[in-house]
Design a protein that fits this description.
Length: 985
């Protein structure tokens, strides 16, 4: 049986905290209450959370984890939900991202990068809290981030095996670090004093994907011990290491956007019908590998009862490689027509099935794309807690964190003009067919293009904080707390952009390369058919889709051989060009240099101070806190301005590059109040109100601007003109960066009712209502900005870039229920369950810019779209069985449809003079996971962990007006299994 202080005893005894864990002495009850997270590793927002000491009866496994998470929620002084791991390496999922999706109000993307609907991710990607991606990430209450241009940690980069728990804070207190508009995710690790003495733990797994059919290992180990010394106090050390590998395969099919074409005479009457026809259909296979390494060392020293010091070192390394064989259309969609000699089906004027063709064949690409990313985050932290008097506590921390990320995204493609594509979208997964005899003949292929993208990012931060807390013995005021925090952060990013360069394309014929047959694959002794392979797409889509046939594609070595392989391909193509290599456009390939012109330097300094008063009314069973946090932010950025290069406007510039810098500063005042009322035993009513901010990502604040100039449409300069007057020019610029952005802001409110109907056995139910009023959204808009010309005069350019504009309301409810059914007769008394459901409703008032407004392929517009990344409904349902040596868990996670992106790759273009951009949604998705563990002895446990047991199909939806709303892509992935051995001593 667990025991818990009454609220009054806990708050009155606050000044008697022991330095480690702030243990309170309560002689009347005779037990000690320990905080849930390591005392030396918690932030000020978590240092008052309490967990129950289980009266020397250790509860582990599923039941213990549920009870610990319940205690954290109950004793917290703001709104928090947690997932805990009492056993070493025992989080319920193989990745932190998947663990987060179990928490109410938290959803994850199932794509490799946010807003990319073309690449599925087995372990999930971006994290949203209550529909917002502006989520602050912390490690033990301190900053943690990846050097990817953002402000948060890529949770997939962190070894889940190192974690003791994950806490999600959904509202603010004054002593919490600012920056979590949606919420704050705190990853907790163990500390030496969490264990009574020596602790040794190890976990070993073999991870198997049943689609890729590969085994990959995972291993982790922990050693912790503490010693009492003569005159030196107590000392503890903990070492934790982890290595994890994973391999998966994803197959996908795509039906591309529809266009209204008038080049079909289906009835042969000489008059063409206007029909909505798809551009074509694609398919691809992606194989994914990742390695994740982590190391963590923690030291604690308590020289006496009044002082405790700690030092930690944490490093997480991530190595990700995925390579993709893709078959895709690269045609002019306005030239597509139906082959009326073959069976076809229409629904009104919209295509359902038939043979698509176009004059000269349908140009397609067959590529190999390899993406290799490495990242590392290293954190060194030191701190102390000092009990100055029985009533006054002082704590301080110093942290240094460094993160770096570098990546290469490399694509080499062949081209082939297939005679036709058979497509059937009349129901379910589409059927796609081509002439296999044609595509299996290497003589029908040519070298198509190369495309590379490189980035190299480094970010460093030095952070310092100090907090002083004074407790009172009596009265309404329980304690008062003050603190300061300062940070100094630098970020350097080098980004080459996507360098697409054609080798041979059909649109080059007749002016850059000879007409007729395209150049062959055999260009010279190096670049020839030996560099390609025949891809037969074995077991494509697990046999659940029409086999697309065999295609030749470049070997993986060509993509990984960048830049040498690129140079060899383009050099081999030179002899096949006419007109001096297409008027000099396609000779002498060079890589995009990672030089100063593509380097962005950013610096940020913050200074924050807060005051927070903890109060309580004993007779009314009310306690809470009220406070304010004030933070000053100073940003600076260094980058480049690229001048126009228009021969008729020499006074504007000649394409030269000029170094520029920008600085910005702002102050935010962030009040907060949290109140907890226990009107009757085991029923808690909470209320919280606060103001929160989310600073823009560093990648959105670069000082980089390209200026453009063009002669106005309809104006023809007189013959011999060398300089056009400014009034006859359109001066524009488009950018995704703005160094003068300020934070998004939110006024947020929470109200909850929690019922702990069986608190000693994990039984609880709750409902939480929330509201966020968000302002100063980041959205691209156009405005006039003045830039100098080389003649010394200033000129106004219409610049489209991100600005702070618009508002949104996000509101909803979370409900949940946890219970173990001990009242059932044996053996059913081992069953338990956990269920939660989240409903979110949003409304936005954010003006659309013409540059960013969604537009259909016929130039028609769309109505009001939902906020991106926000599912209206999501839920988790988990069933447990834990009795004797057995621990069995089944968990289902589901989220409803949500907007992925507007105009992502494959869903935008300029065909017919229309800058079309389609909204693309993720369809609803649900995944079933599970685990079975058997405890051989008290120290040895074996088990099987399983992911995606239901072989879930991920789909995306594209929205069109005339052609209708329809599924546009389908994905299947591995069922994943991990045979696991855990040792604990």
């Amino acid at each position: 049986m667990s025991m818990r202080y009454s609220r009054t005893t806990a708050s009155r005894g606050a000044h008697r905290h022991h330095i480690h864990g702030f243990r309170r002495s309560a002689l009347a009850l005779g037990i000690a209450l320990l905080i849930a997270a390591p005392a030396m590793a918690q932030d000020a927002g978590a240092d008052d959370k309490k967990a129950t000491d289980l009266d020397k009866v250790t509860v582990t496994g599923i039941r213990g984890s549920v009870q610990k998470a319940q205690d954290i929620k109950r004793e917290s002084d703001t709104f928090v939900d947690s997932v805990t791991a009492l056993d070493i390496g025992a989080l319920p999922d193989r990745s932190v991202t998947e663990t987060l999706s179990r928490i109410p109000g938290v959803t994850i993307d199932r794509f490799l990068s946010v807003g990319d609907p073309e690449h599925f991710s087995a372990e999930g990607g971006g994290v949203q809290v209550r529909g917002l991606t502006q989520v602050r990430s912390e490690l033990n209450g301190r900053d943690s981030f990846s050097a990817s241009g953002g402000r948060s940690l890529s949770f997939g980069d962190v070894p889940s095996e190192l974690m003791a728990g994950v806490d999600v804070f959904k509202n603010q207190k004054a002593d919490m670090i600012e920056g979590g508009l949606g919420g704050t995710v705190n990853l907790r690790t163990f500390m030496p004093f969490d264990f009574e003495g020596q602790k040794i733990g190890a976990s070993m797994s073999g991870n198997y994907g049943d689609f890729i059919k590969e085994w990959k290992p995972s291993i982790s180990g922990l050693y912790s011990n503490r010693w009492k010394t003569e005159g030196g106090g107590e000392f503890g050390i903990l070492v934790d290491i982890a290595h994890s590998e994973l391999a998966t395969r994803t197959d996908g099919l795509f039906v591309r956007p529809f266009f209204r074409n008038s080049n079909n005479d289906l009835d042969g009457n000489g008059s063409n019908e206007a029909l909505w026809l798809p551009r074509g259909a694609d398919w691809r296979t992606l194989e994914y590998e990742r390695k994740r390494d982590g190391a963590y060392v923690a030291l604690q020293w308590r020289p006496n009862a009044d002082l405790e010091l700690f030092a930690t070192a944490f490093q997480s390394k991530y190595d990700e490689l995925w390579y993709e064989d893709a078959i895709f259309v690269s045609n002019d969609p306005l030239q597509v027509s139906i082959d009326a000699s073959q069976p076809y089906e229409l629904e009104g004027d919209v295509f359902k099935s038939g043979r698509l063709t176009q004059s000269g064949g349908v140009p397609m690409g067959t590529d190999i794309r390899a993406s290799h990313r490495k990242s590392k985050t290293t954190d060194f932290s030191f701190g102390l807690k000092w009990l100055l008097t029985d009533a006054t506590e002082f704590s301080t921390e110093l942290q240094y964190i460094k993160a770096n990320t570098n990546s290469l995204d490399s694509t080499v493609s062949l081209g082939v003009n297939v005679p036709y594509i058979d497509v059937d979208v009349s129901g379910g997964v589409p059927s796609i067919g081509v002439s296999e005899e044609f595509t299996a003949n290497p003589d029908n292929y040519y070298w198509g293009f190369t495309m590379d993208h490189q980035d190299d990012n480094v970010a460093k931060e030095l952070a310092f904080r100090a907090d002083l807390k004074h407790s009172f013995d009596s009265g309404v005021f329980r304690s008062i707390k003050f603190g300061v925090r300062m940070t100094d952060r630098d970020a350097t990013s080098i980004d080459t952009g996507y360098n697409w360069k054609p080798v041979f394309q059909t649109w080059m014929q007749g002016w850059a390369i000879p007409g007729g047959a395209m150049p062959p694959l055999d260009l010279n002794g190096t670049i020839n058919q030996s560099q390609v392979n025949l891809n037969t797409f074995q077991n494509f889509y697990r046999g659940g889709a029409n086999t697309p046939g065999a295609f030749f594609a470049p070997n993986l070595a060509l993509a990984l051989g960048f830049p040498g392989s690129y140079e060899a391909i383009h050099d081999a193509a030179i002899p096949y060009f006419i007109n001096d290599c297409g008027y000099g456009q396609y000779c002498n390939y060079t890589t995009t240099p990672m030089d100063a012109s593509r380097t962005n330097l950013q610096g940020e300094k913050t200074k924050a101070a807060y005051a927070m008063l903890n109060f309580g009314f004993d007779e009314a069973f009310i306690e809470g806190n009220i406070g304010v946090r004030v933070v000053r932010t100073e940003n600076n950025a260094s980058g480049f301005l690229i001048y126009p290069n228009l021969a008729l406007a020499p006074y504007l510039g000649a394409g030269q590059t000029e170094a520029i810098s920008a600085s910005n500063s702002y102050t935010d005042v962030l009040p907060s109040v949290n109140v907890k009322w226990e009107p009757s035993k085991n029923i808690i009513l909470r209320f919280a109100a606060s103001k929160a901010i989310a600073r823009p990502a560093f990648s959105d604040m670069q000082a980089y601007q390209i200026l453009n100039a063009a002669v106005k449409s309809g104006y023809t300069p007189p013959e011999g003109t060398t300089s056009v007057p400014i009034e006859q020019l359109d001066l524009t610029g488009s950018s995704f960066d703005n160094p003068y952005l300020t934070p998004m802001k939110a006024n947020q409110f929470d109200l909850s009712l929690e019922w702990y109907f069986d608190p000693d056995k994990g039984g609880m139910a709750w409902v939480n209502l929330f509201h966020k009023g968000v302002s100063d959204y980041f959205r691209r808009q156009s405005s006039l900005v003045t830039y100098p010309g080389v003649d010394g005069n200033d000129y106004d350019y219409l610049i489209t870039r991100p600005v702070n504009v618009g508002t949104a309301k996000i509101q909803g409810a979370e409900i949940g229920w946890n219970q173990f059914f001990d009242f059932l007769p044996a053996p059913f008394d081992g069953f338990g369950m956990s269920a939660n459901y989240t409903y979110i409703k949003s409304s936005t008032s954010v003006p659309n810019n013409l540059d960013t407004q969604p537009l259909d392929t016929d130039a028609s517009t769309f109505g009001v779209l939902p906020a991106d990344g926000l599912s209206k409904n999501s839920y988790n349902l988990a069933g447990f069985y834990e009795k004797g040596p057995w621990q069995i868990r089944l968990a289902y996670n589901w989220r409803s449809e949500y907007l992925l992106s507007i105009g992502p790759n494959g869903y935008n273009g300029g065909d017919g003079g229309i800058a079309w951009k389609l909204p693309v949604y993720s369809d609803s998705y649900g995944q079933l996971d599970g685990s079975i563990f058997y405890k051989i002895t008290d120290n040895i446990q074996v088990g099987l962990e399983m992911n995606n047991l239901n072989n879930a199909e991920q789909r995306t939806i594209m929205d069109q007006n005339g052609a209708g709303r329809r599924t546009t892509s389908w994905y299947v992935n591995d069922r994943r299994y991990a045979a696991t051995l855990r040792l604990t001593f």
